[in-house]
Amino acid sequence: MAADLSNEAAPDGPPTTDAVVPFGVAGAPGEPTLRWAGHATSVAGIEQELGRIWSLPQALAARGGAGERLVAARTSVLNLVVVARSPELGEWAASTIAIGTGRHPSRTLIVVPTDPDGPAWLRADVRAYCMVPRPDAPETCAEQVYVTAGGDAGRHVEAIVAPLLVHDLPVTVWWPGDPPFGTAPAEALVGLADRVVVDGSRWTGDGLDRLRALAALARPSLPISDFALMRQARWREAVAAIFDHDAFLPYLRSLRRVAVTYATHGGPHAEAATNLVKPIYHVAWLASRLELRVTKPLARAGRATGGGRARPLPGAAPEPGRGLRALLASDRGPDVEVVVHPVVSGMPGGTTLRVELLAERRGSELRAEVTAEADTVHVRVWQDGVEALGRVFHAARRTDADLLAEAIEAGGRDLVAEGTLAAAAALAGPPSAAPDAGEEAA
Amino acid sequence: MAPRAKSGAPTVASSPAAPAAPAAPTTPAVPAAPAARPAEDPPLTARALRLARPARRRSGTRAIANPLREGLRLERMPDPAAFVLFGATGDLAHRKVVPALYQLWRTNLLPHEFAIVAVGRRPYTDDAFRAELRASLEQFSRVLPIETQVWESFAERIAYHRGDFADPALYEGLARRLDDLDTTRGTRANRCYYLATQPSAFAEIIAGLGLAGLDHEQHGGGWRRIIVEKPFGRDLPSAIRLNREVGKVFRESQVYRIDHYLGKETVRNILVFRFGNGIFEPIWNRRYVDHVQITVAESIGVEKRGAFYEEAGASRDILQNHLMQLLALVAIEPPATFDADALRDEKVKVLRAIEPMAPADVAANVVRGQYGPGWVAGEPVAGYRSEPEVDPASETETYVAARLFIDDWRWAGVPFYLRAGKRLPKRATEIAVRFREVPHALFKDSHADPEANLLALRIQPDEGILLRFAAKVPGLGVDVRAVNMDFTYGSAFSVDSPDAYETLILDALLGDASLFTRSDEVEKAWGIVTPIIEAWADGDAPAFPDYAAGTWGPEAADDLLARDGRRWRRI
Known about the structure:
The complex is a heterodimer of chains A (442) and B (571). Chain A has 442 residues and is of the alpha/beta class.
């Protein structure tokens, strides 16, 4: 019985209190079901636990029937390695991954380094989650190993991860929160990885240093998936849809100005503390698709003057800064002015509020504005001052689980992401020329 | 095939040395190609070759691609268009076509400048028809609940147009309506006609469209495409006739004949499986393959389609199209490219390599059957002759099994066993490739004889791939047992697959005909099936019913394989 088995499976740890459902007992469709829970205090113990899950006769017979003798169907797609810098982040990552159980059979290793100055120790929860996508479908299972490592063990995450990877399967490394780019453990992990997943919009500070570091990491054999860029797909669809119109397409090569408005909370240091990754990605995507070079990276446009007032009136909303400006150049068209400017808003800092494009061609002007709210994206286009297009796209915001699923489903290079990331780093400019970083040390 | 001259769509003169490809449109680009060169003076220089090329199509294809589309879900958005749905009040429109269009709209895969003109005989106001569609969507949409805002934006693009398909006034009114939509909805003179009617209405609708000039592609924009549902004809002569009727009005490149099986994800996966993996192709031939079984089994009866099925039977309903398409995909040579004509050329080669049967061979190679009363899924069910709208003495087959040979280098001597039936024990479509036995029985002391390897491509349900191989039973002896290694797509890619109709309608709007059948393909398939149907018509009355509902067909079907020392795979 499963309860007995799970207790058996905890030879070097306390008995589990998790509600384990035995193999062969149907779980609710669409809901991950915990089929196995065990503990270990060493890498060898974890390996042993993982082996035991699939040696269960119940697991082997789970899909049998009609006289068929089946080999256990443990379809594996990838190794997912998550390095979380706090237990809270680790738990959040674990719950996000559990949502995708039926979607991506994988071995997930979540490693939470802790107590770096203490003695070396390791504790692991080894679990198997299974899911029936629909009532008549076979069950799909995924392994999850949650490792908390203290002292030296936590400083050498790669030494924990490497022996636990399923052979010959791609390795995706996901860094929720701030990735420790530039550190030896991070470099060692990147050495194991076939894909790196991050969320640039959740980095602390303006995120530009990490953006540069991420771009430096990218190479053809190491695709990068950034949730911040992936979330903007609905914006990109909307902007691209403008130029699906034959009448507007020729203007694309005659862009003169790109302006991105983003949310900030105001105040004297708000601009430096607001994450700029998403606003910059909008510009970077356009620059890379249109083969525009960055001739002047983003730089502060000037001090916030608040319309000439020396200081805000008492009780007035805090004034945002004046944003950043850059210049792009093309071999085929005019230079393109870039403005990335903040607006005080109740939206989370760094949220894109508006993307505006201005193009001029043969004396004619095209102006486009894209905005988004909740599950819709609005597009408006004016040609020579006359509204020429108004369109609403229904596109729900994607959850982290959706984005993670998409990131790990992606195979091979993503040239658009590569180009966008490179352009974003160019827009961010060299560290010395960068705006006040305001990021905490990794 | 040289393009025909059509009023409003002048054909560019082309030399015999550089004939216009069938897909080349007749709308000339600027500058137009030069006048025809003498046949004995073929172009020799690069410039001469370039100038001799048929004019490039301007309408329907963007001169410059939108660079922002790269990496997005669609690298090209369908052109603005009006979608004219004939038979809009029918079952197919409500169950499949409209839900597919709604889903495409919901996911922003249709252009903003899109309109649907629903054509039917019954009287409806626009609002009444939309309300009926909404009710159908509640029942048949694969994504529920219906989102009100999305529905409203979709519904406002739907207009109902009443008329009799035989009445020229219908098409004149339709032409005016479509012209209006070009102005009000910006559909830019692009039209996609979808024939979701009874097959008997196809010819008269196509003729009506032609008479009203609704087939004319316009200079500088405005394509016309027509999607025709299966069955395309009911035998070879009628298919040829229908192709001829279609060809009088539309060029082949404008015609999209639907076999929805080709839009199924798992059917498309057959190509990926065969040509995206290096390990299978070397053994995919007569040297290693013993035989192939293709099964399309349904547990349902004829439901409310008794009248239709009486005229069709399993041979016309499944064998001529679905089974032939699956056979072609299993057997084709690798196409040079993945474009529509390269793929269809290869499929036609396979069908051409199947020798039509002489009447005397039909009895030995084909089995038909009809279900009687029985039990399916624990429920008693009526026999076919007791179904609504079915003749109590019906001779229509509800089951067909055939043994075919593909006489080419790759498959010579390898039998392909095909079967399709209604009221079988379960719904299952699969292709099973049985490999040859090992040349020497090394483990003859084993308690069970090792079976030959088998590879099954399951199409539906539970899409996946199964490989059966021999393994040693753990123990001191050398006991060998066959085991299955079973891969299900759902366990690796549990993503939401589009419905076949979504795929196919989107492809038609994008002008991609890869997953549609071509006229010669349809005729070749009929060329195989028609002699069978004719032999039955000329022969004695069958002893129907000959299998009980809920069983795997008549005994004669088992005998068909037993004579070759084989048996149907247990599904």
